[in-house]
Amino acid sequence: MEEPLRSKLDDAIHLAREVGAPQIVDFTLEHNGTSHAFEARIYAESVESAKTSGLVITILDVSETRAHEMTLRALMREVSHRSKNLLAIVQSVAMQTARHTGTIEDFLLKFRGRLHALSSTQDLVTDSDWQGTRFHDLVTAQLSRTGVAVRSDPGPVQLKGLDPIIGPNTALHLGLALHELATNSVLHGALGDGHSGSITISLRVADADRLEFVWHELIRGNDTRPTQAKRFGTLVLEKVVPLSVSGSASYDPEPQEVRYELSIPAQQLGK
User: Signal transduction histidine kinase HWE region domain location, by residue (predicted)?
Assistant: First the structure.
């Protein structure tokens, strides 16, 4: 036993005798190149005259407990960090939604929808222990509110291409983009009343370092489309999302066709 540890134990023994209260000493020892954590508990045993008659010392190997505690602390730090990021996103969405709406009713309607989009993605990320979410699961979750089934074969909404795990940050922002595209389609496009058409959603390899997300919407029965120049949804699609995922985007809404392409660096994929 090394002198610093011996001295620490001697001090604890002396204090246990003096005050009559249990003392705890934590220490580590190396064995075959591996560090082990121990906990020594020192109890003073007394007789009726209140004079110490002896000591009880127990030493426990608490390596596994300490490892679990370290993992829990790391997890809590990660949760705190991600919670702050999510709150920052929510705050930004609230401010920008308010800036681009004229009435409190319109603000509440749009903000609730965007908040639900973030919440749906957050549920997927949390269920994966913060690893991210499958691309197909993300698309299905975001389009579930439209009431149209997402299918792998031709239909109103067809999902094609790769199905990798998308990292948490990219998943949150891509989910927000999907929400804006789906909402716009319900209001003015292929999923809206009085219109028909089809939507193809895909994720494909653009090159060795990039993936490309594509939303391609064909619309029948629509001759006009509201201007997108000052809408927050357009800002999300063209600026917020690509900047947040270190990518680039193009958005071309036309009366009978909508095409959105988002380039995503491969390192944004989850593990």
Answer: 78-163
